[in-house]
Amino acid sequence: MNHVPVMTREVVHYLVYEKTRLVLDGTVGCGGHARAILEAGPHVGIIGVDRDVRALRVAERSLAPYGSRVRLVEGSYTELPTITGESGKLDGVLLDFGVSSLQLGDSSRGFSYLLDGSLDMRMSGMGPTAAELIGRASEMDIAAVLKNYGEVRGASRIARSIKQASASNRLVSTSDLKRAIEAAIGGKSAPALLSKVFQAIRIALNGELDNIRVFLDSILKYLNPGARLVFVSYHSLEDRMIKEFFKREGSGCICPPRTPVCVCGHAASLEILTRRVVKPAETEVNENPRARSARLRAARVIPRGNVE
Ligand code: SAH
User: Fold this and answer.
1) Structural domain boundaries in the chain
2) Is 238 near ligand 1, meaning CB less than 6 Å away?
3) Where are the beta strands (DSSP E) in the chain?
């Protein structure tokens, strides 16, 4: 299934500027955004990273015309020292979270409740599958995942039903998970609930929020002055992490509110380019349902000498 990149015009607008030479596309997926970035700046080179080797194969094909301007790396965007290696500092970073249509549309990956397939959900294909993780987790842990990552109502009841199915070896496929959810709510479940439960389990299994935290903790030292950061989130917790990071790095003093004299000595390192979160245009949402929940935020590294 073809992946249509989300908010491409906005991504390029905030990411590419006259001094852009090297961009890290940390979630290169099928290379949709990467291609648009390469087209926008003839001098731009891209390091494209993905933990999904199947996505990388697609990106390799679609980005082949750009030759040595593209370097693809299999791994997590958290592995910054290995990724950047000898390449020097970056002028731009893009992270487009969530799953690609390639992943969603492949029943053998188990990401979608719409397709019957094994309950896998691993982005990298390594480590335990969703079914194995549920097998090892306690009912309470599962309920916490559903509550925290999915804001699922009736999380405890659903977690109990999922755990019961797993304990009696009836949790092997996506349809099994769907059945367990329906058994808990006593009827056919709404797509919104299924989608929330599947997304919550996927986020937990792949450590998606932890990865964002690790990345944000160290990215600044890999950036040139003036470098742009662009994030596209699909989940309120992802967006909140980005918002808080921008707020912290965009502020001078970060002392607690009632501190009489600044003791933190913190200097702003980022200028926020999106005062409010940017949402996709209605026309895009109509054409590409994956864009519906997308939220974009961008910032730039304050060039030295301008630091307040
Ligand atoms: N922007 C891409 C689509 C990205 S979809 C395009 O235009 O085609 C999100 C991608 O992020 C998926 O391919 C997924 O495998 C990847 N991903 C998720 N977590 C990752 C991580 N920690 N490191 C690298 N890639 C990751």
Assistant:
1) 8-96+209-301, 112-206
2) no
3) 22-25, 45-50, 70-74, 90-96, 223-233, 270-272, 295-301
- Give the model confidence (pLDDT) of 93-114 as tens digits: 999 998 999 999 999 999 999 9
Q: Is 129 exposed, middle or buried (0-12, 13-18, 19+ CB in 10 A)?
A: middle
**173: Cβ below 6 Å to ligand 1?**
no
Rounded to the nearest angstrom, the distance between the alpha carbon of 276 and the centre of ligand 1 is 24
Check residue 307 and give its pLDDT.
47
Q: Topology of domain 8-96+209-301, per CATH?
A: Rossmann fold (3.40.50)
Looking at the domain 112-206, which fold is it?
DNA polymerase; domain 1 (1.10.150)
Report, as ranges of residue numbers, the positions in the chain whose pLDDT lies below 70: 1, 305-308
Residue 96 Cα to ligand 1 midpoint, Å, equals 6
Maximum Cα–Cα distance for the chain, whole Å? 64
Instruction: Report the pLDDT value the prediction gives residue 269, as an integer from 0 to 100.
Output: 95
pTM, two decimal places: 0.95
Residue whose CA lies nearest to ligand 1 atom number 14: 99
Residue 7 Cβ contacting ligand 1 at under 6 Å: no
112-206 matches 8-96+209-301 in CATH topology: no
